[in-house]
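Course assignment 3, question 2. Fill in each field.
Student: A.L.
Task: Predict the tertiary structure for the chain below.
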Amino acid sequence: MTILTINRKEFEKQIGKLTPELEKKITDMGTPIEEVTDSEIAIEVFPNRPDLLSLENFARAINQFIGKGKIAKFKVVSSGEKLIVDKSLPKEWPYAIACIIKGIKFDDEKIKQIIDVQEKLGMSVLRKRKRGGIGLYPLEKIEFPIKFVGMKPEEIKFRPLEFPREITGRQILRQHPTGREYADICKDWNSFPVFVDDSEKIMSMPPIINSHDVGKIDETTSDVFLEATGDNLPSLQNAFNIIVTSLASMGGQIYSIDCKQQNGKMLSIPDLSSEELNFKIEDIEKTLGIKLKEKEVRGYLARMGIDYENKKGKSVALIPAYRTDILHWVDLAEEVAIAYGYENFEPEIPAISTIAEENPIDKTKKAIGNILAGLGCLECSSFHLITKKDVKKMHYEFNNFIEVEASKTGRDVLRMDLMTNMLQILSKNSDVAYPQKIFEMGRVFELDEKSETGVIEKERLSIAMIDEKMGFTEMKQVLDYLFKMLDVEYKLEDVEDSNYIVGRCGKILVGNEEVGRVGEIAPRVLKNWKIRMPVVGCEMGLGFLFG
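Answer field:
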């Protein structure tokens, strides 16, 4: 969770005096109050609601919840300006979007608020800036069109924020406090991304730092250029829409910019149009166990900031662009439940008698987890959805993807193994102390024409270990102990597998059945993941344990 600390005076100016009744309403909305002082209010905001990370957006949501606010509408006017995303950018940072906000009366409090939401979005939605960064600039100090280009680090030279002199890109990573904090994001890149305006001034080096000369807003600023850059366009747009609406709620007028991407596609940013989500009221009734009329559903959704339409007898929810947490009708059921009030649900005892018992499969998985934890391994839980690009880093000939229609993120295929996720985790944690030993038990997915859905799910276990001298022997010791504790006989036989080093790979046999493979990961695969140390891994199905 994130703690949103807001000025009490500003809060009460927008919402009303903080009474015990209002405190209860705030808690009922799913944002409990952590602390209240004479000057500040600290509120817990859970990860599913990043849109509440600013005073303006939070105040709008509370006013809607208590019936004082209407569904938010934001007017976007074309600025006629352009942003050009160049092909010289590093492949790790290929996207940029931007817009203009005019007419904000900045003061010290508003500057603190917008910097705070900028940082919180960078830490949460954009994963500590590893997926993207957000920047603001006084509009009067830059000239259009703006270019987002890649430059060699030693050729980049500008004065970063709150620094006494001009330094190069590499020096920023070594000498500037923010540069040192986020250096691991780009230190291995051959080129660094920079924003350059039409007069060739360097505006910033995303996602690290802005220029002190053209990238610092103050109390004289009223019009701003706002940008977001990163490696995943949907994630950028999610974070961008949140901060855009925060600035608009401060009194700003939004002006779109035509953002030409590397592939030539022109995006008019921001796109604040609502997304239509079809649902059935009876599904929500069944989920919540209550009877609902259409008028009531409309009212409950309105209290959560979501509009409703009846299109030819079908219920349609209009999801605001800043509500990145609404992906499915089940999410709408939760919104209705919050607005209805959990305290209003009447508990019922089911008219059946059952005897509780732990699922045997879960008992077995728990035993495996305890064994591996005892060997110093850390359990992970990764996403079922991955990208084709990540799969190809290991299985370069694999093409039988199970694709997800209309994916809300860059992850668009179901995983076909666990090792890909294990390597991704190791790659993302290169700054953590070694050795690293991790494991995961979870489902993988395969195409199967005989099944009802065309897809079958299988339970698997994957283990990965990384260190300077990590090898096949260390993993063999782990497997010996694991199978001994499970009271299962197994053996290894040599096998050739392009994902592992020749001669250091084996298939795991239980009886005469191959249940998995173990080996030292091939250098080709490690290079694709930018992993600089030896990795040994194994992956096996768990079906032989479940009978």
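Instructor remarks: The chain has 17 helices and 27 strands. The two ends are 41 Å apart (CA to CA).
Grade: pending
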